[in-house]
Amino acid sequence: MNRFTTCAHLLFSLPKTVRFNLHYLGWRAVWRLPVVVSHRVVLKKMSGRVRVEGAWQRAMIRIGFGDVAVFDRRRSQTVWHNLGLVVFRGRAILNHGSRISVEAEGVLTLGDGFHINAETTLICRKAIAFGRDCLLSWHVLVMDSDLHRIVGPQGAAINPDAAITVGDHVWIGCRALIVKGSRIGSHCVVAAQSVVSGTFDGSHCLLAGVPARVVKEEIDWLRDRDL
To answer: In terms of DSSP bridges, do strands 205-208 and 135-136 run parallel, antiparallel, or are they unpaired?
Structure first.
């Protein structure tokens, strides 16, 4: 994206950016604009809350921007559906086409340096928490609920929602699925198309497979570009 296109995109996005900051963070945020929101973002539900922790910096949180080479960003809309609480603990990028859904009792916590790529979806009904410097590739799905009830012989639900916790500096590969009750330790990598459905408290691990298991230990990963 060239400089002219970038400036035009930001200019067109100013009304939605001001609306978002004023609604969630008040008049002080209108002058600082810690959150910038693309004009292509669909603000579907905004009755929940947003908390931005730490010192505010202009554009420290970017929603609906980015330009992933294999996606058409003009047709890849971000959807924001927030009935609960979204906590930003610092800088964050929610790339174009990402979908955020937080229900009334849900708490979604995003650590400093959080980055999700195109077409990734977070569905939170209870609690999802990411640590610092987490990177999610495209088409990742993270959900702490089955969304529908499974009942036993007496009619009681047997599949309650369960919180998801992801440590610091975790990279989740494309088309991975992270389901309710999962826990991933710090400095881990989740391989593409893996299904994480358990507890992995160890750090520096490579998780892969369906269901995911530890296939290699004592690993780490590096970003090609800083946030």
So the answer is: unpaired
Q: How far apart are CA 29 and CA 170, in angstroms?
A: 30
The residue segments making up the domain with residue 138 are: 3-217
C-alpha separations of 67 from 2, 48, 75, 159, 202 in Å = 11, 28, 12, 38, 34
**The pLDDT of residue 1:** 56
- CATH code of the domain in which 46 resides: 2.160.10.10
CA–CA distance, 10 with 3 (Å, rounded to integer): 11
- Does the global pTM surpass 0.85? yes
Can you list the residues of the chain whose pLDDT is less than 70?
A: 1-9, 69-73, 225-227
Q: Locate tokens 């330790």: which residue?
A: 185
Any domain includes 202: yes
DSSP, collapsed to helix, strand or coil, labels residue 128 as strand
Residue 67, domain member (yes or no)? yes
Across the chain, how many H-helices and E-strands are there? Answer: 2, 23
Note the pLDDT of residue 160.
94
Nearby residues of 12 by Cβ (< 8 Å), 6 or more positions away: 39
Q: Please give the tally of structural domains in the chain.
A: 1
- Is residue 224 situated within a structural domain? no
3-state secondary structure 31-79: HHCCEEECCCCEEEECCCEEEECCCCCCCCEEECCCCCCCCCCCCCCCE
